[in-house]
Design brief:
Blueprint (H helix, E strand, L loop, with lengths): L8 H14 L7 H8 L3 H13 L3 E3 L5 E3 L2 H13 L3 H14 L3 E7 L2 E8 L22 H7 L4 H11 L12 H8 L7 E5 L6 E9 L7 E9 H6 L1 H16 L1
Antiparallel strand pairs: 1-2, 3-4, 3-7, 5-6, 6-7
Length: about 250
């Protein structure tokens, strides 16, 4: 994306600093931050002190910096902004209780396929990345594949050129033609399944949900499971998934 003509450099630099510090859970000293962000040390100190004053960074006794508690408040704000009608949580909770597997909802948010709701269940492997706000790996997840299937091919290609097709596992589909063959002509009521393309030993199945909203026409709902489990219980799990999709569509 091209930077805006009125880009405020100090704000952009502060955000880069938050990213650099966030990438080091053990803490990060100012010299390391300056090197990672390509900033003068004096500028780095000014921005670090400002961010610490506002609560977005915490200065430790050793002089290192870590993320502050204001970050968690902004995450809660993000979750609230992504919350859909109460029936979404109710349907996902029922799906998780019925199947014993975690349920997820994703939709397009600001042009990105984004997970907006999650209800975890003990039958699924814990996937620490798949939380509300996750907007990566569209080509490698069942949720992403489902929503990509509703885009015209040219628009899908533009989307994937912008986001890239990173290999998360050796099984990740990285070829546009192969993905087109998988998604072209798939019907609205299809179940999309990926086996170990995003995370080894984990598989996911997803189903589309028509919303009737021209500005947000499709959601996708999914469950995750250990690969042998999804293979063994494919029929019951996909039936439960289709049922959940129909309840949301209604």
């Amino acid at each position: 994306m091209e930077p805006p003509s009125d880009l405020i450099r100090s704000v952009s630099r502060a955000l880069r600093i938050l990213e650099a510090v966030g990438a080091s859970p053990e803490g990060c000293n100012p010299k390391v931050v300056a090197r990672r962000c390509g900033l003068h040390l004096s500028t780095t100190y000014h921005l670090l002190r400002t961010l610490a004053y506002e609560g977005y960074l915490l200065r430790t006794a050793t002089g290192d910096y870590r993320l502050g508690l204001e970050i968690s408040d902004r995450y809660r704000d993000l979750q609230a902004s992504l919350t859909r009608p109460p029936r979404v949580t109710a349907v996902l909770r029922h799906l998780a209780q019925e199947t014993g597997h975690s349920g997820y909802l994703a939709r397009f948010v600001d042009g990105r396929v984004t997970i907006t709701s999650v209800v975890e269940a003990p039958g699924s492997p814990h996937l620490e990345d798949l939380i509300p706000g996750f907007d990566e790996a569209t080509h490698a997840t069942a949720l992403g594949k489902a929503l990509l299937s509703r885009l015209p091919r040219a628009q899908r290609h533009r989307f994937l050129r912008d986001t890239g097709m990173r290999p998360f596992t050796p099984l990740t589909v990285r070829d546009l033609a192969a993905l087109d063959a998988e998604l072209d002509g798939v019907t609205d009521d299809a179940v999309f399944v990926e086996h170990e393309q995003y995370r080894g030993s984990v598989s996911c199945a997803a189903s589309l949900v028509p919303t009737g909203d021209p500005d947000d026409p499709w959601w996708a709902i999914a469950i995750s499971a250990a690969s042998p489990t999804l293979a063994r219980q494919h029929g019951p799990l996909t039936r439960a998934l289709r049922s959940a999709s129909r309840h949301l569509a209604a």
